[in-house]
Every structure is written in structure tokens, then in C-alpha cells.
Amino acid sequence: MSNVMPGGWSSFSWELTEKDKRVFEEAKKKIVGVDYTPYAAATQVVAGTHYCFICRGVYVLADLLEMAAKVYVYQPLSGDPQITQIVEIKP
Fold first, then answer.
1. Among 14, 2, 89, 78, residue whose Cα is nearest residue 44
2. What gap in Å lies between CA 88 and CA 91, rounded to an integer?
3. Of 3, 5, 17, 89, which Cα lies nearest the Cα of 51?
4. pLDDT at position 3, please?
5. Residue 79, phi then psi, degrees to nearest 5
């Protein structure tokens, strides 16, 4: 039995599924200037699925500076996943 409230976010999983990886790779094609690598994912099922990925980001145009970020992706029931928000995680 799931402990997730309907419409609520799941806990972060540090083992990404193949579906998590596919959704992230498709969504990140539209990002320019930063290369993100996901390490954990949480989901929220609504009319489609919202994802929140905890990522390592590397600025590819700024001397390879690194940061941590939450990358939010929405996967509609039909169509391509889209990034809805990127939030830098401050130390």
C-alpha cells in the first residue's frame, strides 16, 4: 500500500527507473548552457506525471562551474515531456 496522498509527491528515489531516465533525457534536449545529470527523482501523478529531479549541473559556457538543482518536468498523458522549472539548490 502506498503512503503517497492522491495528487501528492512521492519520496525521492536515488535509483532512477528507465522511464525516469527517458523522460529526463527527452526534456533536457531544450536546455542550453548547462548540462544536468539526474541523481534522484520524485513524482506526482495528476493528469500526466510531474517529475522533480535532483541534479548536478555544469555550466558549459562558464569555465565548467558546478551547482546542484531541482529540475521539474511535466510528462503529459500524450506528447513530449517539458521542463517547467529549474531551481538551484543553495548550499
1. 2
2. 10
3. 17
4. 56
5. 110, 180
What is this structure's pTM?
0.80
C-alpha grid cell, residue 4: 503517497
Which residue pairs from 52-60 have beta carbons closer than 8 angstroms and sit at least 24 positions apart in sequence? 52/9, 52/12, 53/20, 53/24, 54/12, 54/89, 57/88, 58/34, 59/33, 59/34, 60/33, 60/34, 60/35
The amino acid occupying position 19 is: K
Task: Per-residue pLDDT tens, the chain, 91 aa: give them.
Answer: 345 566 789 999 999 999 999 999 999 998 888 999 999 999 999 889 999 999 999 988 766 678 899 999 999 999 999 999 999 998 7
Instruction: Write out the E strands in 1-91.
Output: 34-46, 48-59, 66-75, 82-89
